């Protein structure tokens, strides 16, 4: 397995420590140490995870520690559900932090979709206050309601139809009479998105709640926020190399360095890119030791020469950005094995976590979407979902091999999936949205086909050169000298 390190003491931690007195007191003691023990590195990561929840430090932490962002989010999610009970205070802080980062960091939106799948909405406080149960205790610096509604509005802007269906927005209607104008503003904009108002209806709706001066003020505020968002995006994109871990031949613990082994068990580093790992299925936890041994054998059997590392890194970045991936190259160049190795590194070694379909002239859309099949009862039919439907609805990975041989009815199925993330099933009249975690891969050979070309992230995979080919047996079968 590759060894990766990240130098955080040189600039990121020092900038964070200079932010205010709180960050200086929490990070200064680590910067003064000459050597970081494993316990120190875990304390640093936990401290950074807590600073991420401070709305005054969220943007700075996200900008300076991009390689650690997914790990810090996972640590906070684990802390929120620790002990079997939800920490509502930390939940609200995490929601506000994600909303501040969701526009500029591609890791945040996929994480948010996974997180909210089985967690309360941003404005869960409204449900708790309206119930007769025991009141929930919050910290001394309780999040303001205006921050929560602003966060809800930003989530809706990113995935309008997902959060519209996921949360019950009726509890927000009384907030239109709030004394806080910002609460009313964000609530009104949320309800406009939830009800799918056009611009004319939205303006008429806002005029019933705000006077003309307030509308002008809030429009100027939106323009200012958009400019700040563009500036932050420029700062993030100005130095793209800061989002990658660095590779070293042997695992070393140097001053100011964090290593990939320090990361949470929920994430994994692939050639410098941090990806979420696949949590084990409860019924498969008993075989975790065997699967770990198989995973280690898979890592050893895959030789990471320079070209393979570059391909893996680019592929991992596409997965982190949730792009559909098309790998193109001649037979035997390693297109399928590249996807399989990436799946093994993220805990997706076997079906159903990683599904593979070999396309050909005999493949039809029913094989991918599903069909009705008869049962033992005469005249009774049940729906059996196809491979693509299972992967899309359950958030698994799927690899369609030799897509250039796919019939036209299969291509027609893939168009809405690639364009809108929707799967249309003609026989049932269903329109299914893909689940969080779904990833679509396909392979093809060198042919002059351009169908669906703008919808893919295309990778050209070349076979090993004559210079690199001798390195594989030398690395794989080298014995003691």
TrEMBL record:
InterPro entries: ATPase_dyneun-rel_AAA, P-loop_NTPase
GO-annotated molecular function: ATP binding; ATP hydrolysis activity
Pfam families per record: AAA_5 (PF07728)
GO biological process: ribosomal large subunit assembly; ribosomal large subunit export from nucleus
Name of this chain's protein: ATPase dynein-related AAA domain-containing protein
GO cellular component, one term: nucleus
The keyword Thylakoid belongs to this UniProt entry's keyword annotation: no
Source organism (scientific name): Mustela putorius furo
Top-level taxon in the UniProt lineage: Eukaryota
Residue ranges of every copy of the ATPase dynein-related AAA domain listed in the record: 325-443
Keywords per UniProt: ATP-binding, Nucleotide-binding
């Amino acid at each position: 397995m590759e060894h990766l390190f990240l130098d955080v003491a040189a600039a990121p931690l020092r900038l964070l420590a200079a932010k205010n007195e709180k960050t200086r007191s929490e990070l200064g003691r680590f910067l003064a140490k000459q050597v970081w023990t494993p316990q120190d590195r875990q304390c640093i990561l936990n401290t950074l995870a807590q600073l991420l929840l401070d709305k005054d430090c969220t943007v700075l932490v996200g900008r300076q520690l991009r390689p650690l962002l997914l790990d810090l989010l996972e640590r906070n999610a684990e802390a929120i559900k620790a002990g079997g009970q939800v920490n509502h205070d930390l939940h609200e802080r995490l929601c506000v932090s994600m909303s501040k980062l969701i526009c500029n960091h591609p890791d945040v939106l996929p994480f948010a979709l996974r997180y909210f799948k089985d967690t309360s909405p941003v404005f869960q406080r409204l449900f708790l206050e309206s119930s007769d149960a025991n009141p929930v205790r919050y910290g001394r610096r309780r999040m303001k309601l205006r921050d929560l509604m602003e966060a809800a509005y930003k989530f809706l802007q990113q995935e309008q139809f997902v959060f519209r269906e996921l949360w019950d927005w009726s509890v927000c209607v009384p907030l239109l009479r709030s004394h806080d104008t910002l609460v009313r503003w964000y609530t009104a904009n949320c309800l406009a998105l939830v009800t799918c108002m056009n611009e004319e209806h939205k303006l008429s709706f806002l005029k019933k709640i705000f006077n003309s001066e307030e509308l002008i003020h809030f429009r100027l505020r939106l323009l200012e926020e958009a400019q700040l968002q563009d500036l932050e995006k420029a700062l993030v994109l100005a130095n793209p190399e800061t989002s990658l871990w660095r590779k070293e031949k042997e695992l070393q613990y140097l001053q100011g360095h964090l290593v990939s082994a320090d990361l949470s068990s929920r994430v994994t580093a692939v050639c410098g890119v941090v990806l979420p790992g696949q949590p084990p299925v409860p019924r498969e936890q008993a075989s975790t030791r065997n699967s770990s041994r198989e995973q280690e054998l898979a890592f050893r059997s895959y030789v990471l020469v320079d070209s393979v590392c570059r391909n893996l890194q680019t592929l991992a970045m596409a997965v982190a950005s949730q792009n559909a991936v098309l790998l193109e190259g001649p037979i035997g160049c390693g297109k399928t094995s590249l996807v399989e190795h990436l799946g093994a590194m993220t805990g997706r070694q076997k079906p159903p976590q990683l599904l593979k379909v070999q396309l050909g002239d005999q493949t039809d859309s029913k094989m991918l979407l599903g069909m009705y099949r008869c049962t033992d009862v005469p005249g009774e039919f049940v729906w059996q979902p196809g491979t693509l439907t299972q992967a899309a609805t359950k958030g698994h990975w799927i690899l369609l091999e030799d897509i250039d041989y796919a019939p036209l009815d299969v291509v027609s199925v893939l168009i809405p999936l690639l364009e809108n993330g929707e799967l249309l099933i003609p026989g049932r009249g269903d329109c299914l949205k893909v689940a969080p975690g779904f990833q679509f891969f396909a392979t093809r050979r060198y042919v002059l086909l351009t169908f669906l070309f703008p919808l893919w992230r295309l990778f050209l995979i070349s076979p090993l050169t004559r210079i690199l080919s001798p390195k594989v047996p030398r690395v794989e079968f080298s014995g003691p000298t």
